[in-house]
Every structure is written in C-alpha cells, then in structure tokens.
Specification:
142 residues; OB fold (Dihydrolipoamide Acetyltransferase, E2P); single chain; 2 domains; mainly beta
Length: 142
Amino acid sequence: MKKYKFTIKGHDYEVDILHFENDVVELEVNGTHYSVEVRREAKEKTKTPRLVRQAVPKPSPEEAGISKAANPSVSIKTPLPGTILKILVKVGDEVKKGDTLLIMEAMKMENNITAEKAGKVAQIKVKEGDSVLQNDVLVVLD
C-alpha cells in the first residue's frame, strides 16, 4: 500500500503498510509482519471563529420615511378560490378578532372567513353568489 523509511535512534527501518481497516493496521517492518491496533485520541473541539458586528442603530421614523398610521386598515383576502355563500356583516359593524365575517364554499367545503383583528367593517367588496379567486379582497376593516 505505502512504503516509509524511518530512522529511530540511529537504526533504519523500512515500513510497508499493507492494510488499514478500522483501527487495525497490517504492516511489515524490515521483512517482519505485524498487526497493530491504533488508538485515536479524542481531538479537542475546534473553535469556529465567530463574526462579531456592532449593532446598527435603528433609524428614526423620519429618517426611515415611515409614518405611523393611527389605525391602519386590514384587507381580508380569500385563502382559496371559491364562491361566497353568505355575508354575516354589513358596513359599519364592529367586529372582534376571530369573528366570522362571511361563509365561502371552496373545494366543496364551507369555510368561515374570520376577522384578523378587531375593528369596524369599512367595505365589503363581494356579494353573495360571487365567484372569487385566491387572494381577492373580500372585506376591509378599519
């Protein structure tokens, strides 16, 4: 397999590694055959360098060009294509998070479309019997 020449305390040795499997090495030293068990010491865990960066300060709303809306509106959209079966709210109704706004049939199942936040119904963009596609806006809450 591999041949090596060693000099130990002034003596020359010719070493042929014949076979190495698991932790047993078959080798020949100056014509004499040996079977040697190799012990491997557990290596110390190498430390992976860590990149340390300084924290970036957050920009002020003026710097970022972001204006906070007092009460942003939320559009309730369809999760799947389907047909509107029943509308349970009207414009001006106050709803709580989780209230059912309308019932929609999709994939031969009735699905309750619920409010994602509490608010007032500002617009209803569909009527009963309408066919809708995925992500169509159904209701707008303020």
